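Q: I'm a student working through a structural biology exercise. My instructor gave each of us a protein and asked us to get a predicted structure, then write a short paragraph describing it. Mine is Iron complex transport system permease protein. I'm not confident about reading structure output yet, so if you can add a plain explanation after the tokens, that would really help. Here is the sequence I was given:
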Amino acid sequence: MTKRSCLRHGLSFAVLAALMCMLMIWNLNSGSVSLSVREIGRVLFRRAGEETAQRIVWDIRFPRILAAAILGGGLSVSGFLLQTFFANPIAGPFVLGISSGAKLVVSLVMIAFLSRGLPMGSGGMILAAFAGAMISMGFVLLISGKVKKMSMLVICGVMIGYICSAVTDFVVTFADDANIVNLHNWSMGSFSGMSWENIRVMAAVTFLSLVLVFLLAKPIGAYQMGEVYAQNMGVNILRFRVELILLSSLLSACVTAFAGPISFVGIAVPHLVKSLFGTAKPLLLIPGCFLGGAVFCLFCDLIARTVFAPTELGISSVTAVFGAPIVIYMMVRGRRNMQ
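A: Happy to help. First, here is the predicted structure for Iron complex transport system permease protein. I'll explain a few features afterward.
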């Protein structure tokens, strides 16, 4: 690695970290009650200030900000793993229908619990979302064995997503209980209503998954060079693929369980991070994708909360506005490069 490359990579990490810190402060400051940076610092570091300010920061805004950063980063890494698995830059949890499958199973399980007056913990939501993600991934893998063109696989994934979303909307629409009807807001994607218990669970699942992804960095690098090259380097291809599927599904399931389906983050952010770093090395892209996903979701959540306040937009709508043009640009540029 040249000195120039090291400098570029260091600056890229510094830019992403600075943007994340800036957006965290901006998110803490923004809302129906405006808080100055000094007030925020007093509440965070001294546990001082007015009781109202402390409750706004510690009970509402700070958990939401941490959730956006953790889940956004996890979703971006999940997209990077899927793009590596399918060797396609537009593969992602939302496009392949994995997020929609997780949403469907979580909705069905939540309705079953709520209709009987039973509580559903964070762990149960993650397990339900993981089961849904694995079911959708199973259909995608089944189709991938029958379809040769990657474009057809993506189209089939989109169709699976539409079917799961349609069934979810049908079930939620005809639910009787008021708490079940409120699932509609979750199904549109939102970081609101996060508790510290949610943060602890999602942080444990996400960071454990990231550690396991880091352990796969060397096999991922070999796999990027081609399946034959990876086999010659001693990579067990079958086991490696299973590990990629499980980790990407677990990360996307964790996001869907807590925030609902979020579109385009898993596609757009890895592409932006690759362009920023100028490399495809997993050891750099894994933390880079996590930071990039955190920045992207913090920014989109800020837009969702403040642009039409007090009305809040679904986070998936905002991520689509900023992520879809990036995906279109990727497809157009890829087509030009093939010509």
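A: Here are two points you could use in your paragraph. The CA atoms of residues 29 and 180 lie 32 Å apart. The mean pLDDT is 85. It's a good idea to check both against the output above yourself.
Q: Great, thank you!
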